[in-house]
Design brief:
Residues 1-64 form the Alpha-type protein kinase domain. 39% of the residues lie in helices and 20% in strands. The chain is α+β, with helices and mostly antiparallel strands and 101 residues long.
Length: 101
């Protein structure tokens, strides 16, 4: 999951100067986190176009969360998504499920 298009406003956080982030946009491998989730296309676009700035640097995101997309996890998830669940076999044989005549 990638959080993109974060916006922020300076504010006191725990009685210290801070930044309150709001209006996040997320992109997930499945593309199902909500409106504006462009799935792998959004993730790849972010990885291709993002340039770390002051906020990334101050949060040390380049160290704790480097912008590297782990394709092996993506392939494992895709295999799980494409494998039939136990109920799918019954439905394919015309058994089980809610048949309405």
């Amino acid at each position: 999951m990638i959080f993109a298009d974060l916006q922020g406003t300076p504010a006191l956080v725990g009685r210290k100067d801070g930044l309150v982030l709001f209006d996040p946009m997320t992109h997930t491998v499945g593309g199902n986190s909500g409106i504006g989730d462009f799935g792998l296309e959004g993730i790849n676009s972010f990885l291709r176009d993002h340039t770390c700035g002051d906020v990334c640097n101050r949060l040390a995101l380049d160290e704790v969360a480097p912008l590297i997309f782990d394709t092996s996890r993506n392939e494992e998830q895709e295999e799980q998504d494409n494998s039939p669940s136990p109920g799918d076999a019954d439905s394919a044989n015309g058994e089980g499920g809610d048949n309405v005549d």
